[in-house]
Amino acid sequence: MWCKTSTAGKGKVPFTVLTQERIDSLTRDKQQVLGEGASCRVLLVEVDGAPCCLKVAKEKRLKRLFQKEFDILLELNGAAGAPLALGTSFGFPALLTSFCGKSTFCELSRVASGDKEKFSAFLSLVKDVQQLHTFRYTHNDIKENNVVVRRDPDGRLQVSLIDYGMAKPFGTKLKYAGNDRHNPSRHPWMAPELKSGGACQPPVDMYSLGFVLKNLLATCEARYPSLEVLAATAMSPDPADRPSVAKMAKSMREYTVQDKKTKKSVFGKILRFFSFRK
């Protein structure tokens, strides 16, 4: 059964307490396994006729971690492109969220119509991270398969930053599991200071954005030297050398509005041509 409760904050989304019986039922009737890692499985399920994501832990010891992720999603309430928190369990750790889409940045080349649209999608991601930082959280795990992209009925690409399991408030430290924390080949999207026990601050997410941008540029039809420099600078070993999220957004915006400016210029020339002929 479902046991519905209301949240205290105004404008927050009501959430549902998942019983073990309901978790088992949703798991059994799942539509698809969206992802699976060492600690959890993410399933596409249907609730009241709507697609949702059910994240189920593989170990009960992760209960506190799941509750923290639920609390962050509840606070964001859809901001920063985050999925909506819809349900949680106070028994075995499980989390129910809104479904943002099946395609991720791993498939961006297939979803986007060209380089400009790829840059528009990346700019949306940068803006999401910028908004997340206004809540004084770092995501700490920004990579291609944690960025969902979908095309709305109006034709526009929408971007959602998902998986807030490693998100932390500014100033806290992330417990990085692994003996090879200084090995750049392990979790290459993560900032080196994060893996060595440093505090969570905005530059750690900038490093990850640089990693995503670098990989995105490798799929582009043309070369963009200034963006290559931007990606490399964002991945600087020294956090102080990395650009701010606002600066990265400004740089990307130049590449997404270029076509609009060109179209306006061409359109203006056409109008002047016909005006002259009259």
UniProtKB/TrEMBL annotation:
GO terms for molecular function: ATP binding; protein serine/threonine kinase activity. Residues 28-278 form the Protein kinase domain. The keyword Heme does not apply. Gene3D superfamilies: Transferase(Phosphotransferase) domain 1. Keywords: ATP-binding, Kinase, Nucleotide-binding, Transferase. SUPFAM superfamilies: Protein kinase-like (PK-like). InterPro entries: Kinase-like_dom_sf, Prot_kinase_dom, Ser/Thr_kinase_AS. PROSITE patterns: PROTEIN_KINASE_DOM, PROTEIN_KINASE_ST. This is Protein kinase domain-containing protein. It comes from Scylla olivacea.
